[in-house]
Write a structure and sequence with these properties.
The complex is a heterodimer of chains A (242) and B (417). With 242 residues, chain A is of the alpha/beta class. Helix content of chain A is 33%, strand content 28%. Chain A has helices at 56-63, 86-96, 112-122, 127-140, 156-168, 186-203, 214-219; strands at residues 14-25, 28-40, 45-49, 71-76, 79-80, 97-101, 174-178, 206-211, 222-227, 230-236. Chain A is globular. Chain B has 417 residues and is α+β, with helices and mostly antiparallel strands. In chain B, 53% of the residues lie in helices and 19% in strands. Classes of the chains: A alpha/beta (242), B alpha+beta (417).
Chain lengths: 242, 417
Amino acid sequence: MLRVSGAVREAPVFRVEGLTRSYRVGDADVRALAGVDLEIGSGELVVVAGPSGSGKSTLLHLLGALDAPDAGRVFVEGRDLATLGERQRTLLRRQRLGFVFQAFHLVPVLDALENVEYPLVIDGVPRAERRARAAAALDSVGLGERMSHRPDRLSGGERQRVAIARALVHRPRAVLADEPTGNLDSGNALRVFELLAALGREHGATVVVSTHDPELVARAPRVVTLRDGRVARDERRPEAVS
Amino acid sequence: MSPLEIARLALRNLARNRRRTALSLAVVAAGTAALVVTAGFVRFSFDGLREAMIHGGLGHLEIADAAAAAARGAALDRPASPALADWREVRRALEALPHVTAVGANLHLMGLAQSADGRSVSFVGVGAEPDRERRMGFEVRLREGSDLPAAAPAPGADAALLARGLAESLGVRAGEVVTLVATTPEGTLNALDVTVAGVVTTGVAELDTRFLKLPLASAQRLAQTDSVSNLLVGLDDTRATGAALAAARAALAGRAAPLAVTPWSERAPFYGQVRDLYLGIFVFLGTIVVVLVVLAASNTLVMSILERVREIGTLRAIGTGRGQIAALLVAEAAWLGALGALAGAALGLGAVLGLNAAGLRMPPPPGAVDPIDLRLALVPEAFAGGALLMILVLVLAALLPAARAARLAIVDALGHV
């Protein structure tokens, strides 16, 4: 099994400098990020807030090595992503990061246990070990009884909990959750957010969640608000409930 | 991700859209079955033609005087002159060899046949030994009358089998007498009255207008010679031809007058031409089948990828390598090929057995006289080759779409609707 190497000890998990990213939409250039500087430390729970089109998803994509900026730099555990090749970025995502998406994006032909097991399969973890770890991860999100259910037999909240278990099963350094509650009702949204926060704490993982749900924003210990592709506010609130 | 894991996941993915997968499997199965059936027909045709030619008069091996054989040049089907004088000794040596069922002597003649009412037709004749030809499995296709007697006829009791075209031209039937006139090796003319024992067909329309057969003793009386043109060796199995050829050459080596030992295949250029023609047709049909399968399968594979762009983006996002994505998609194609080929092999087997049991007949091939039974051979190489070809074709068809899918920009793929 290949391992990502070269992490700089004590470096922030994420650091971005002067990040800009534009997209071509029709004939127009849309600037999603227009010079973002940000640092996120180990074990932090950060909510990236802002209205639609403010650049939340783009920022998470760049932090997760899913996309490359037009200008600026992204450091993950001290490594400049611009210096990593395609294969190293793939390994970084596979071993150091976890992802949760708004639309869950589970593999429909795999049951809950197999979906959670998948990151360990691609990383070459032996079958017995990965089955045990995947089962434990599903237990930790309260789906120990639904392991053999395929996604189409799970509710939206349950699917997102499977996705959270999949994001954490390989013990990543950070989890990036892009609008993870966008497809859920308010009750489920809150439960999923609290689950992410609790499991992040339990695993010592940094959790970055993008959302425009004010109820979640109110519970976050740190809120980075984006507006027009820039950091409009970076607020730390140690008293927040999560 | 191990190859086993990739294969397992690929198989699962095939079950996503069962109807489309079933349709693709049907196309691959039909293609494989078409290859199996066509190969069975071609093989049966080859085998049938080969055995028909061998048992229709070629024999498995021909022994002839080397100089006479060389002199006949391109006319490979028969030697030019009765140059084999010590043929009985040669025959004794050959009949002692393994796989040899009998060795028959032939004397070839050309001349004029005349009926009692004065009609004359040129003939191509052969003097042969009916008892030995029967042991060699030679066919006599009688249309009326009876076959030649096994024993050599006494002088004045000569008989002949006339091909039906020749008999019609002469206006004779079984039991009537014709006079044969031929040139002796010394260049003089000789005549012999023969009774028409029977009317036969050679199976070849052109040859039927000229051919006649008479006992070797009668032919030798007509040609006034004790020699023969050649010896034909019959074997118990055509597959033993190579071994028998080597054994015959070894047994006949060192003779003062060297003999040429020629296998049937070298004396049957027609067989080679038909074989090449059939193989050409087979390759042409095979190419059409492959193109159809590629078109149908490519459509399925591309549709399957287009439906999963977001999922592919997700898998890439959570750390699946480009190679793993490509391998997964190619493995799906390989499964389609393998399962389709398996079904196709079963379908092909059923078609071969069913068609053989149906007892269908086909019209006579060009130049032939009789309709032929439609029979298909079971060709193991066609089953294995067809299956491998289908897997290979599917994998090749998947390479480009798989490579494109693996190179999708992750963010674009995640946002794909």
